[in-house]
């Protein structure tokens, strides 16, 4: 019994241990299942996160691609709009006759440059049209002025004026042009008692006396055409109309103003001042020959320059194209002035201008420009800036430089003249505006010439590059032909070259080039071509014996060979053959030729 009980308790213990082990195993199994489920959840979450990440990357790439496309489209539209504007501008420039060449400039800078040229051209055309209008107006005014001068010349006063000026009877001019002033105030006895050609004084002619027998009769003043008073009034009216035509509408007619002054002393003062000025002019005409004679006598010269009529005669010779006579006369005048009055006398500038005009008429613009430069360097500091001769010399200098197309020198000259005038004249002065316009014109011409030169240089460089490329192409063809003859037509030369290439570790390159060349033989069928192409691929490309072949070339050739149903072309290895030829020719063939030459 005790043994049975002990056995029973032992069995119960075993069962309890077994149940406890089973519970532990079930617990471990449940924990393992829970861990497995947790791992599966984590893996699924990781996959979801990876998928979300890939999707976000794809969406970001797509968004960037769309943005890039939009940006490229906007840029394309802007470029198209810019090209349209440039095309319209070029067409407008061609219509205006402006150069459209802009070497080294493109895009927006080119458009701005073309628009600037158009604005400058339109400004020049506008100024030209305004000048034409002014010339037309001047032509009409000139015709009117000629008619008035003809009317003035036809009056009976002309002979009296010419006679008085010729004999220098200045007192006779006073009653002819200003009878009221000359008839009032204090008269000198010589002036009042001077008799004219008809035996009467100038004042008695205006107030004639009529005698019938020995009895004086009063004369009724009439405005007859043959009377002196009518001639004087008609001449005064002609002068008034000429002044109004020349000076414009702001001129106040003298015929409507009372000639008599309120104060007789003022009239006397004006008359004395006028007579003193006339005497000073007469005395100056006497003194100039005397001074010239003294200087000429000191210099030992017999000829004396007394009046500037020689310059007028030289100008007449120039107009008549008698240039030799004009030069000879101007040389004589120049020598006389230098000896009598000195080199800095203002008449020397007139002589220099006439000599330069002769050179300009004969086409010697360089000589004309040199003369004007020398003359301006002497007289710029002596004469005023607005002196007529200074302005004429400057204009002739710029015209000569323009004719010679020395635009850079003309720009420097304009800048120099502007720097001198701007210190002495107001900013609104007409001379400053004129020199600024000339400066802008010469700058524009200089830029046009420089751009044309740049275009010529660019075209010359392009032509040289084209010739060089043609020469290189012909040389490459010659080298390729000689190399092909060596590889394909000269077995002995090929063997020697292969031996040399083996020494240079380039034998595979040479054999590859020969194999590719054999694929291009005439009359080869498609089956043989595919067989040779596959053989080249397996031997040289797939085995990677040729190191110069890139992975992209390898994939391209493999795809072309392995694509079923696609006809294989004999130019499949053209790019590779050109690459191999470049390496073999530069690295092996050149050294082989050098060694053979030795």
Automatic annotation (TrEMBL):
Low complexity: compositionally biased ranges: 182-191
PROSITE patterns attached to this UniProt entry: RGS
Keywords assigned: Coiled coil
Coiled-coil region list: 11-52
Domain of life: Eukaryota
Organism: Phytophthora cactorum
Region (Disordered): 181-206
Name recorded for this polypeptide: RGS domain-containing protein
InterPro entries (alphabetical): RGS
Domain RGS: 487-593
